[in-house]
Every structure is written in C-alpha cells, then in structure tokens.
Amino acid sequence: MVSGSAVAPPSGPIARINGSHHRAALNLYLFVVIAHWAEHLVQAYQIWVLGMPRPQARGVLGQFFPWLVTSEWLHYGYALVMLVGLFLLRPGFVGRARTWWTVALVIQFWHHIEHLLLLVQAQAGVTFFGAAQPTSVVQLVLARVELHLFYNSVVFIPMMIAMYLHLRPNRAELAATTCSCVARSSSREPAPSAA
Fold this sequence. Notes:
Layout: H1 13-17, H2 22-48, H3 61-64, H4 67-70, H5 72-89, H6 95-124, H7 144-167, H8 171-176, H9 180-186
C-alpha cells in the first residue's frame, strides 16, 4: 500500500463490475429497473385510464401470472436486487454522479425496509398499524399502487441524474474515473483546435 493511501483499490469481481464491465453492468441493471418501472406504469394506466378495479390491475406480467402481483417474496426480492445493484455499482461512480447515485441508494434502502415490513407481515400472518392487510409505514397515507409508483420514480430520477453526470464528467471527475463508461463518452469531447 502506498503511503498516504487510506484504502487499497478494490480487486476481483467488484473491481471488474466497476471497471472494465461497468457499462455492461449498468445497462443490464437499467434494463431491469425500467422493466419493473414499466410494470408499475401499466398498472397505474389500468387503474386511472382504463378504470379497472385495483385487484384486476396487475400490469403486463401480472395478467398472465397473477401470483406475481400478490407475492410479497417477489416484491421484496426485487427491492433487494435494486438495493444490492445500487450498492455494487456505486464504486464506479465519482464526484457529482456518486452523490446522486448515493441519493438513489438511500431512498432504495428505505423502500427495501417498507417491503421487508410487508414481507414479515405476510409471512407471519399478522398486520401492523391496525390495518386489515399487510401495510408499510408510508402506505398508511398513500395507497399501495401510488406509493410504489412513487418509490420507483424517486429512485429512478437520481439514478438517471447520476448516469448522465457519470457519462459527462468534469476534468477532476474524469481524472478519478476508472470504469469503461467514460472512455466511450469522453471520446465525444471536441478535440482541441490547432491554432
């Protein structure tokens, strides 16, 4: 370890995910996030535009596999995958992008806690807060469909800001970046003009 260095650089699979494979890992992660968010948008459309009763508004996949909508294990699993993905991909971000990615991570951590509360209630056959069915904390004031559409949106927005800034680093951030994303995006910078 070099004198004055506080932390040794990461090695192994995490280093590759945040180095040479960061772009591919981000693209895969973004695909999963957008597909899940789209399911929530379709469910909202079914309720608010098509006028479907909430129990029948199951998104796209839920129309073919209704158990997906009611499986707390599946919802918790997705919340956990989101949390782990945000955590594992975070080292590839620097500067302003890392700040926004961390905002998404913190919000998703709370979203994960909400799903954990729902899972515990469903598995134990009890309900909290005097509710008739498993209920999360914020669900006490906002209906479940709207709440999870909101959660997925407020995690997605800082993620997108982080990705935008990640692909357009300033000079200091560019110097600190080691992942595969910036190499491609930094080639978009105009070449210095010959005087």
